[in-house]
Specification:
Length: 168
């Protein structure tokens, strides 16, 4: 079993027009905050932004470059609706993409719903920050987190430059 960690900071960014206008309770963001905290990660920021590329880009760059947060998990805006632009913003932010992490989440999600193929979420690194896009619905967040959580400590250690043991 992977050990719990108390060593990494995290931020949650919810991409939602309705959420940013206060028209829908952000249950997905709240679930992420609760779960990551209970896993031992340290919350430093929680932001709700509209589905707007410049706003999302600025927010993610600030969290990585200024706040130097270890982990940023986003929810929403990954799909195919005209307003869904999270991946387009990510394209401008990340320096290294980790396609395997996004594909693993989609692969496992496909076992729950074929609609998982509609998510275009990315995972990537900017500086020493890992940024992970999850879909918007609470169900999707729960299902994707199950795939993500076990690999996170090792990924974050590697990104930080630790000599992690890959052997287990
Ligand atoms: N932050 C959230 N918390 C809880 N549920 C959400 C959240 N964001 C989206 N959802 C749910 O996931 C579904 C798909 O998300 P999507 O972003 O396409 O919805 P939307 O209503 O067009 O979003 P928005 O206008 O807020 O950007 C929504 O119908 C909603 O039920
Ligand atoms: N595991 C999982 N992944 C999922 C879903 C889900 O219910 N479970 N919903 C899908 C749906 S219906 C959509 S439209 C896309 C994109 O969601 P988003 O636009 O809210 O980011 O995520 C998909 N990924």
């Amino acid at each position: 079993m992977e050990q719990k960690t108390e060593k990494f900071t995290f931020a949650v960014v919810t991409m939602s027009d309705k959420g940013s206008r206060g028209e829908r309770e952000d249950t997905s963001g709240a679930y992420l905050l609760k779960t990551l905290t209970s896993e031992g990660y340290i919350q430093v920021s929680y932001i709700i932004v509209p589905d707007n590329v410049p706003v999302i880009t600025k927010t993610l760059i600030e969290l990585a470059d200024k706040e130097q947060v270890a982990l940023v998990v986003t929810t929403g805006g990954t799909g195919v609706a005209p307003t869904d632009v999270t991946p387009e913003a990510m394209q401008q932010v990340i320096e290294k993409e980790i396609p395997g992490m996004a594909e693993a989440m989609r692969y496992e999600s496909m076992k729950k719903t074929s609609r998982a193929m509609l998510s275009r979420g990315k995972v990537g690194i900017r500086g020493a920050t890992l940024i992970v896009n999850l879909p918007g619905s609470l169900k999707a967040v729960k299902e994707n987190l199950e795939v993500l959580l076990p690999v996170l400590p090792h990924a974050l250690e590697k990104i930080r430059g630790d000599d992690g043991d890959c052997g287990r």
